[in-house]
Amino acid sequence: MGSVEQGIREHLLVDVDGVAGEKLPTKAAKLQVRNLTKRSETTGEPILREVNLDIPEGAIVGVIGPSGSGKSTLLRSLNRLWEPSPGAVFLDGQDICGLDVISLRRKVGMLFQLPALFDGTVADNVRFGPQLRGKKLAEAEVQKLLSLADLDPAFASKPVTGLSVGEGQRVALARTLANDPEVLLLDEPTSALDPISTQNIEEAIVRLKKSRGMTIVMVSHSVKQIQRIADVVCLVVGGVVVEVLDPSRLSQAEHPMARRFLELST
Ligand SMILES: Nc1ncnc2c1ncn2[C@@H]1O[C@H](COP(=O)(O)OP(=O)(O)OP(=O)(O)O)[C@@H](O)[C@H]1O
Ligand SMILES: [Mg+2]
């Protein structure tokens, strides 16, 4: 291992503003990533290289990095949409490869950049997850979930076909929340939204952290957004986690890409 890589590794594991790293007691980390390497199934090229990361319970962790750097792959490895190697990802100290995949995904819910909704009403979509487990959500429960996702409860009876992208995104968030997840993985949840919808989603995310103690990992291309809502920011470049730090200290980051992102971010 080269000295730069060694330095990064030591930085990550030893001192990351007291929020990430092996010095913390295990129970402080909701998710732990250990030497996660992921190769392309087609070319064999590494997409993620020996990623080490602790995701503290009840924190919002922002993930930034250039296009193609492996951010979505990292997120997908956390709930086995991409299968990590055994011993690489732990939820509450348990190797996720040993967990039932359906219950894992219920606990670690994911919201995609452009989520697909099922034909039917907003309420049909929100009820979908619990229904799979034989539970029918009452009207009031559906409305509560819609409010959590910052949608007017009157949306419940609307067909999803007429929704705007921003409204659809919030319905998808409500649908994910219906599974009562402990961790929420958000892959660029506001990239297709106008500034007001973006602000609404950001507020909803912060509320989920504060009111439910939810652990949230959010990929975003907006450093400013990360600075508004995240407790920790993780910079991924070329499949390597090169920095983990307090978002307010991005201007002092060692990696030049961090400062470049900060300068260019809207
Ligand atoms: N299913 C796949 N098979 C092979 N290679 C893949 C697959 N999915 C992603 N990759 C490759 O892995 C690399 C990282 O992709 P990933 O989608 O994780 O990047 P990203 O950081 O999320 O990018 P963006 O900001 O554009 O969303 C890219 O080079 C991509 O082409
Ligand atoms: Mg991506």
Structure report:
By secondary structure, the protein is α/β, with parallel strands linked by helices. The protein has one domain: 3-Layer(aba) Sandwich (Rossmann fold). Helices cover 35% and strands 22% of the residues. It has 9 helices and 10 strands. The protein has a 6-stranded mixed beta sheet, with helices on both faces. Strands 2-1-4-5 form a 4-stranded antiparallel beta sheet. A hairpin with a 2-residue loop joins strand 9 and strand 10. The radius of gyration is 18 Å and the shape is globular. The protein starts with a helix and ends with a helix. The N terminus is likely disordered. The chain binds adenosine-5'-triphosphate and magnesium ion. The site of adenosine-5'-triphosphate has 12 residues, from helix 2.
Rg, please? 18 Å
What is the CATH C level class, in words?
Alpha Beta
At the third CATH level, what is the topology name? Rossmann fold
Report the β-strand fraction as a percent range.
15-25%
Our count of helices gives 9
Largest sheet: 6 strands, mixed
**Could you give the order of strands across the largest sheet?**
6-7-8-3-9-10
Measured as a percent range, the helix fraction is: 25-40%
Tell me which ligands are bound: adenosine-5'-triphosphate, magnesium ion
Domains counted in the coordinates: how many?
1
